[in-house]
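Hey there, shall we discuss this one?
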Amino acid sequence: MPGPRHRLLRGTLITSTTTTFGNGTNANRATAGADAQYGSNETWDFYKQTYGRDGIFGNGTGSYNRVHYGSGYVNAFWDGTKMTYGDGDGTSYGPLVSLDVAGHEMSHGVTENTAGLTYSGESGGLNEATSDIFGTMVEFFANNASDPGDYLIGEQFDLKKHLGFRRMDNPASDGSSLNCWSATAGSADVHYSSGIGNHFFYLLSEGSGAKTLNGVSYNSPTCNGSTVTGIGRDAAANIWYRALTVYMTSSTNYSGARTATLNAAKDLYGAGSTQYNAVASAWSAVSVS
């Protein structure tokens, strides 16, 4: 999530007398820093290699990671200059420095420096969905056997259930997130209205119904009873990135996102292409027309 804007406070720099930082356990305070930096590196490489984007700001400027924030803080945020990660409560959640969360927080910076989606109402839901989408894509991009790609957000630090905060195939399964758009979607918390965009992206990538991927079972419903055939996550992410960086603006809502992604699909794959038609089908499946 985005966080408050404030000056960079002077903290303790994590150093090592060797090329190793931390020991893989939370007892060593350098471990969280190493994990956060790894997430930053993978996210940077994902955007560079996939879209030719040179960092969060698109100009090669780097960013900071701040770890061990607060006490029992079960959250992470981007504040315009740096990522900040809490340690979790130590019982249900560990440090929030997983790959998908690093990709999520850095992607808030990408959104801020492209479409600038306002962090409230439906545009806020799209802002959060964008970070979940690209955080997920970073996890698949890294191809790390210790953290295989999935459509769960934050499962690595979920100590009890290993399901994370959100899941993209069936967001409403958490009891709060939205699977389907309605006229009241804009009044929901942005972390819950993001479910509409997450659901769309999963359907566009993988399609509806049951499947197992990297050991995780999914079963994505549709809001209109339709069957959706996915086009693959890479094509889906290409469409979303172009929509974000070319067509979306600060006030884009879900209807506007439908138009933006259709325009992006037309640019990339052609009007009437399989990909273009799948975008339309996936939006209809989450009740956006």
